[in-house]
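Note to self: user wants both folds in one dump. Writing first protein now.
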Amino acid sequence: MKPAIEVRGLTFSYPDGRVAIAGIDLDIRVGERVAILGPNGAGKTTLMLQLNGVLTATSGSVKISGVELKRAALQDIRRRVGIVFQDPDDQLFMPTVAQDVAFGPANFGVTGEALSQRVKAALESVGMLDNADRSAAHLSGGQRRRVALASVLACEPDVLILDEPSANLDPVARRELAETLMTLDTTMLLVTHDIPYAAQLCERVVVLDRGIIVADGRAADIFSDHAMLARHRLELPWGFSIPPDHGERSWTAVSPSTPRPDRNH
């Protein structure tokens, strides 16, 4: 089976000469859930936008399900790779939720009963079918995030990319979104700073810094390497750890009585 994502020798420089991607090779298997982590300025967003052709590589290649990203294949690639942006307002602009969800597949040529079924299935998958006739402007932040997700799922992408999916969500909305994402069998990339969310959802983690991949492996192994995380300005939130000898999503909470380390020593 061809990889869902195959990246070879990818580089990208902005017009001012700043190098954002400095040579990346990356394979993502079909059905994998992978977190892309890194400090600010690491190249995470640039990589994300390369994967569906929003940005064009300076050199190297990207293939999605075996289809090479070239100008002639751009519409096909954008159907295959769906991005859920951090701010739902970047994706929700129609009068009703149902119209927002229908917008993408309609642009790809889906019409009539097939379009109605796409919209219904996508909204059901995120638990928002009862809100189909409401305006997204009247929904909570968590609800809008799920509608934005539905608007991408309705296009039936091969690859789903989520940009900081947990940002600005309250604990209940975070949990509800995570539960929704766990039900999906789509190949998934989470571009995030949120290590607990990455650990909950992803079995594999890729750490990016200064435009290169500095670590790639099981979530439990990556998150147990505190020295590597510190070198790249990443750290577990206080009070949590991931034992390296447990499953990828195993978390332990440190007892409140555990002394906090003195960061001055």
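First done. Writing the second protein, which came from a different request thread.
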Amino acid sequence: MVEFKFTAQRLNGQSISGSLSAISSSDGKKKISRLAEKNKLKIQSIQKKSTYFYRVRKGDEKPIKGEQKAFDKQEVEEALLRMGYKVLSINKKLINYQRKPPTSDIVTFVKISAELLEQKLPYSEVLNLLINDTENTALKNTLKEINNDLKKGADSEVTFLKYQGIFGKFTAYMLGLASKSGNMTEIYLATAKFLERREEFRKSLRSALITPAVTMFVLLLAVLFYVGYIFPETAKLFVRFGIDLPPMTAFTLMFSDFLIENPLLILAVLFLPPIAFVYYIRTSKGRMVFDRYVMKMPVIGSLIHKTLIEVFCRVFYTLYHGSAESIEPIRIAAEATDNKYFEHRIKQIAIPLMLQKGVGMTEAFEASGVFTTTALSRFHSGEESGTIKNTALQLANYYEADTVHKLKNLIEIIQVVIAMIIMVIMIALTLVSAETATVRPKSPGLSSAAVEMENNKG
């Protein structure tokens, strides 16, 4: 998030100032323009919060280096002088880019925070401890800024959402909500569990789908290189001598000629479909279609679907406090799944049915069409017995155990299949090479083509 401070003038000549946050510089300027147009203001200046490097000294001590975010150089200088430092230099950071911390660092921060909160340590002390021990620069600076904002009395939810580029939207929301809730430790523990499960599932999914896909793509490129470049050098030598080629060698040479004659077509077939696919799923409609059908994929789709329900149930369990306050936890849990189709069905079908027609939770979930029969049955039992919160946790734990076990088995099966495909391709190439090695002229003497070549040389 980018922070801006602006000054403006009303029609009556009164000067006012304000600040706002945006996801980018362009978005921030658009927000300020819309605000000025709506309130009939004349913008006089816009300042963007930037990072400044400073070098200071206190008394005869060794100079200290650091960095601080501020709207201008003077703001940094005044703050340092108030702290009793002599300012040696202040320079604006030219490239103000922060790389997002690894998920493992964020999970560690959330887990340690939860453990320290369980020990009844004040949250300000928790932040101070983690600021000192965090090695990732981006996360350390973010925690410093959050700590400073909270000390000034800023709203925790607004403060954390300012840094959703670092934590992620859902994590920032949960951590901001935790500071305002009565069960801060529980929300931190649930958020850590959620982050761990999501990262674990993504790693497993990469092992099950992405890694095999990359392996097959590289293998395909290797085969095309062999068939299109290495193999013809030998096979065409036999053709020049008028030697009849065996079936596999002849077919491979014909395929090689096709590759050489149509390089643009081959490149288009190899690269255009994935590029078009990536571009399509980046659109809102494409993402919706992809997220819908990813749950219907053979074998893996069922595991993805169950994992989405697990995430939904785990977040719902953390936030749910009673039937009178069920809508907001349902909405947030749907967003946490990170599946646009699942989220859309909950927000556009289930929630309106509950709000407008007074439909029960289970009936609304069934109408959304994104829950399994097992999940609906358990929700129905929990709703009737008044244990919907515990039912959600039981479902989350059940689907976690189920998907972890099945995904491990699936990865093993896929690895075996990939190994067999590689083996078959290598055998095929070996057979073609072996067949080529057996090619011999029709007669012991030179062929007519060879004789003609010799005569031409003479």
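Dump finished. Worth passing along: DSSP finds 19 helices and six strands in the chain.
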